[in-house]
Amino acid sequence: MKVKYKRADKAEGPLLIMEDIRDAVFDEIVEIEMPDKTSRLGKVVQIDKNKVVIQVFEGTSGISLPDITVAFTGNPMKIPLSREILGRVFNGIAKPIDGAGEIFSTRYYDINGRPMNPVARVYPRNFIQTGISAIDGLMTLIRGQKLPIFSGDGLPHNELAAQIVKQAKISGDEEKNFAVVFAAMGIKHDEADFFVKTFEEAGVMDKVVMYVNLADDPVVERIITPRCALTAAEFLAFECGMHILVILTDMTSYCDALREISSAREEVPSRKGYPGYMYSDLASLYERAGMIKGSKGSITQIPILTMPNDDITHPVPDLTGYITEGQIVLNRALYQKGIYPPINILPSLSRLMKDGIGEKYTREDHPDLANQVFSSYSRVQEVRALAQVIGEEELSDVDKGYMEFGRQFEEKFINQDFDEERDIFQTLDLMWKLLKILPEKELTRINPSLIKKYLRG
Questions:
Q1: Which ranges carry the ATPase F1/V1/A1 complex alpha/beta subunit nucleotide-binding domain (predicted)?
Q2: Quick one: which of 63, 152, 227, 417 has the fewest CB in 10 Å?
Q3: Which of the four pLDDT bands, split at 50, 70 and 90, describes residue 172?
Q4: In whole angstroms, how large is the CA radius of gyration of the chain?
Q5: What backbone torsions phi and psi does residue 17 show, to the nearest 5 degrees?
């Protein structure tokens, strides 16, 4: 039953404060009716005896405190879901913005989902092919994994996200059951247009669901956007049996929204002003990925975040790294060389990669090949440092081979056009081709039988 109050006591930023409220429930949705009969939504974020703090999704600007009606619904925020959401674009609080009408469903789903029970989880195995060699070959994305992309301001993470959406696919008969849920937080209008246009031109829009919170939308919506997206992903995965890839960009904008609202609530700040509960808040989002026993579907997550000042120790990438299963790190020096995508493979890793590649999943040579390429590229960095001291002409023939390997690896393997899609076999064959630059005796990480089959054969 709705309880209505015909006034509010105070407004601070996105928060509405009311006194003498009875039986309010934490996280319940509140409907605010304006004098002109328009309405706004909010949710209860704090209760102190009879004092209630409400977070207004559309912000409190233009609200006349004595003239509004505030109705407490007694229910958490729920959104209607059906398979018809595929191909649609919604705003940050799941309202359609593509002009195609409302979503009609007999069932509404609470957006405050819970992390998966570890006991009910199935260990991730099968890989998802992104068509990007650096990812597929060296930090393979596994179905049900959480693999974030650590980027920086000005780096092409939006292009990389769009390319992954365009090209991502799973092997076998499950291909038709694969879809992408794309959530954008705090992006600019031209970025939103870029994503929609790219998906439409690539012909993949019918398998994409978009939730878009723009930079000029209320900051409070940014807290809701990933939860709406993950609720949609859970519906498609566990009720429709689909394999869902969720891309969340930009998680730094989400965390900044958390900090802004925490400050408005006058909470005690932690590192760099972020709230102390940011770790558990991020975990409540990231841990909604995975596979569940008895369900055919799966949820794989790629959160994308921009590191302020390219600082990987900043609280947002730092906490994200603790929760997730690896990271893909973009590098500004590679980007300045004109290399796209500028993925720095040395600090990047996929912790679940070892269990989703090899004979049953990709190809028998994949594990040894990836280890050898990592090792060889690591040696390249040592040789480059040495060349800066003594000059490249003074290097040994083996070291000169490593210098050439490093150049070609960056230019031909990491570097890849935005519209270029390589399958896993093309990627592995390219890795073998590059290793031919080095003397065979340097290939110490590969089984000799594989060298005989793929290098000499």
A1: 131-350
A2: 417
A3: low
A4: 25
A5: -115, 130
- Spacing of C-alpha 121 from chain mean position: 20
Going by DSSP bridges, is the β-strand pair 298-306/108-110 parallel, antiparallel, or unpaired? unpaired
Structural domain count of the chain: 3
Q: Are residues 205 and 346 in the same domain?
A: yes
Burial grade of 202 (CB within 10 A; 0-12, 13-18, 19 or more) = middle
Q: What is the pLDDT of residue 280?
A: 93
- pTM to 2 decimal places: 0.92
Q: CB of 1 within 8 A of CB of 25? A: no
Q: Is the pLDDT of residue 175 over 80?
A: no
Q: What value does the mean pLDDT take over residues 393-422?
A: 95
Domain holding 65, by residue range, is 3-76
Q: Tell me how far CA of residue 276 lies from CA of 17, 222, 307, in angstroms.
A: 23, 19, 19
Question: Which of 191, 196, 216 has the alpha carbon at shortest distance from 206?
Answer: 196
Q: How many residues does the chain have?
A: 457
The backbone torsions φ and ψ at residue 265, rounded to the nearest 5 degrees and listed phi first, read -85, 0
| Angular region, 46: left φ>0, alpha ψ -120 to 50, beta rest | beta
Q: Could you tell me which of 350, 349, 379, 354 has the C-alpha nearest to residue 367?
A: 354
* Distance separating alpha carbons of residues 10 and 17, to the nearest angstrom: 5
Residue 377 lies in a domain: yes
Q: Is residue 64 part of a domain?
A: yes
Final residue of a structural domain among 354, 386, 406: 354
Q: Distance between CA 15 and CA 234 in Å, rounded? A: 30
209 and 245: one domain? yes
